[in-house]
Design goal:
Myb_TF_plants, nucleus, DNA-binding, Arc Repressor Mutant, subunit A, 0% strand, 51% helix, elongated
DNA sequence: AAGGACTCCAACCGCAAACAA
DNA sequence: ATTGTTTGCGGTTGGAGTCCT
């Protein structure tokens, strides 16, 4: 099945197209249609190969091509489709009217891919990068296991290997956590940690709820507004301790994952004190986040939950001060150390960000939220089931 | 102001599937 | 069924434009 390369004949032009060539090509196709691409250039008076003409037409000159920057909706579609289709650019392009596979491919490689890497998301698998999960787990266990000096070395090696993907905030935090172990120091909680100022500004709950809901309308965020919510599905016989015990025994149990509000207990107070009045997490999700950092779970349970929670995982525990509790792991990933990371903030809710939030900044936030919930979509579960 | 580094994207290349004879 | 041709696709490259020092 030989193939004679159509472009190897002498005298055929390569490289950028001139306006005159474009004109000739457009004129010919409008008059005759493209017909056979191989014979087109000769008929149209172009010193180009048919392949080059086809590419120029389909990627640039076609009248139905939409030019200009990608909209949020288009970006959302690309990411969503890529998580299902992979690098099937033509299949993705078929779902985006006016966009070409080449354009989408370029946009993915130059913008989206980099942004995902920045957020610690593997652009191939669309999941949290394993090395970062491992770091998360190690940091957590180092916090609550004073004898894990070998793990501290491991963490430091890991940080070293991650190179440019780790920003100064993460290094500072890791150093701080490893230096000031809560169980090995006798200082008060308030002085135990030396968290960089800009880290304290990160609030994982300032998400774009509208975007989230439009992306995954069947998932309803759980709002914890009252400790005695009458929407509670927690069995009424469960008190604080029993809730914790049940969660400890079987954190993925149906009775817990179906909880939409807290038992009437100090648990909810603790959680709300940590994250504020409006929380997007169910009690079970919140518990899982706390339990995984408190070491209540074994490694399998922990990693399962951390995987499920994805971006939602927060370093929350009664022993961790609020400024750390409010911080999601991914929010520490590589960003210019001179500017606060606004991964979870909108331009209107981020109190300490500059008012001149850029389009790219908004996309960062938008993107992160989409991935947060595209994982849920992948599991085919609703918000209360995915713990 | 200069030039080196970096980014972005149009265009190219090679492969394989689809089609035609 | 076989062989040659066309088309489509995804990865890669080159160079223009921009940024940084």
């Amino acid at each position: 099945m030989g193939k004679t390369p159509c472009c190897e004949k002498d005298g055929l032009k390569k490289g950028p197209w001139t306006p005159e060539e474009d004109e000739k090509l457009i004129g010919y196709i409008q008059k005759h249609g493209h017909g056979r691409w191989r014979t087109l250039p000769k008929n149209a008076g172009l010193k180009r190969c048919g392949k080059s003409c086809r590419l120029r037409w389909s990627n640039y000159l076609r009248p139905d091509i939409k030019r200009g920057r990608f909209s949020f909706e288009e970006e959302e579609t690309i990411i969503q489709l890529h998580s299902v289709l992979g690098n099937k650019w033509s299949a993705i392009a078929a779902r985006l009217p006016g966009r070409t596979d080449n354009e989408i491919k370029n946009y993915w490689n130059t913008h989206i891919r980099k942004r995902l890497l920045k957020m610690g998301i593997d652009p191939v698998t669309h999941t949290q990068r394993l090395d970062l999960l491992e770091l998360s787990s190690l940091l957590s266990s180092s916090l609550y296991n004073p004898s894990s000096s070998h793990q501290q070395i491991h963490v430091q090696n890991l940080l070293g290997n991650m190179g440019p993907l780790v920003n100064q905030n993460l290094l500072n935090l890791a150093t701080t956590l490893l230096s000031y172990h809560p169980k090995t120091t006798s200082t008060s909680t308030s002085t135990r940690f030396n968290v960089p100022q800009n880290v304290q500004e990160i609030n994982p709950l300032n998400v774009h709820q509208n975007q989230f809901q439009s992306f995954q309308p069947n998932v309803q965020p759980c709002t914890i507004s009252s400790t005695t919510s009458n929407t509670s599905t927690v069995p009424s016989y469960l008190n604080d301790t029993q809730f914790m015990q049940l969660a400890k025994m079987d954190p993925l149990s149906e009775s817990l994952t179906s909880c939409t509000s807290w038992p009437d207990s100090s648990l909810s107070n603790m959680w709300q004190n940590s994250v504020g009045e409006q929380a997007l997490f169910t009690p079970a999700e919140s518990y899982a986040a706390m339990a995984s950092t408190n070491g209540y779970l074994d490694s399998t349970q922990s990693s399962s939950i951390v995987n499920s929670l994805s971006e939602n995982q927060a370093f929350v525990s009664s022993e961790v001060p609020n400024n750390i509790a409010n911080m999601s792991f991914s929010s520490l990933l590589s960003t210019p150390s001179s500017s606060p990371h606004n991964l979870y903030s909108s331009s209107t809710t981020y109190a300490n960000s500059k008012n001149t939030t850029t389009h790219e900044d908004e996309r960062d936030s938008f993107c992160s939220n989409m991935f947060l919930y595209s994982d849920i979509a992948n599991y085919g579960l609703n918000g209360n089931e995915f713990v």
